[in-house]
Amino acid sequence: MRHPILLAACLAGASVVAGCAEKDANATVERAFKDVNVVDETNLSDVMLTVADPNEAVSYFERATKEDPSRIDSQRGLASSLIRAKRVTEAAVAWKKVTEMPEATSDDSVEYADALIRSGDWASAEKVLDSVPPTHETFKRYRLEALVADSNKEWKKADSFYEIAVGLTTTPASVMNNWGYSKLTRGDYAAAERLFSDSVRQDPDLFTAKNNLVLARSAQRDYTLPVVPMNQTERAQLLHTMALSAIKQGDVETGKSLLREAIDTHPQHFEAAVRSLRALENS
């Protein structure tokens, strides 16, 4: 009698073990798929933040934040995508929400300040930056501090912040261009010219810096093109900028000559320069 009972007990035990093993296997498979999904989702988020159409990225992160509002990475993705889509007012609201989340960092506050500056709310941006600990020393923080100081015409502070920002990045061309423009607005044309030249040297493709360099030289009545890399279209555009600057300063004949050169240089029809020259000749 004992053998059937023992056999039944063994079979029952085997069933329990088999059931546990099956549950463990299922749990392992579920965890594996969950990990794969997290990786796939992270990769997709990276794509959305970099190469995807900005408005598509906004839609993607809007869906993600609705599904799980507590995920700060999705909230950051939405705020960043709104910046890329040039929806700066919405972006400022989104970044404010991020800064109020428990996992928020000083970097989030700096991004919030950036969004406020883009939306024209300089006073609020300054308050946000003031709330960032002084130990948070990053390129973006000091670049924004410099822009805010510029807006307040606090020139010494601006120069100090620009200098620090330049030292905190390996690609300082854009901040050098900003610093040069600050000098240009103050009337320090020689310093502006030097900074624009440094900017172009750092990034030969930065046309804004080339254009600003021409403005700084023209403000000193130097109507010769700087020796910087430029294609034929850029050369024509820079000549046009120089011509308008000369005319503004009263050097009208020089301006006309530069306009003619710009028209002759441009590989296509240069409507803006033609229109400017006609207006001068008709007047």
TrEMBL record:
TPR repeat residues: 173-206
Pfam families in UniProt: TPR_16, TPR_6
Keywords of this entry: Signal, TPR repeat
SUPFAM superfamilies: TPR-like (SSF48452)
Annotated signal peptide: 1-20
Domain of life: Bacteria
The name this protein goes by in its record: Tetratricopeptide repeat protein
Organism: Sulfitobacter sediminis
Classification lineage: Bacteria, Pseudomonadati, Pseudomonadota, Alphaproteobacteria, Rhodobacterales
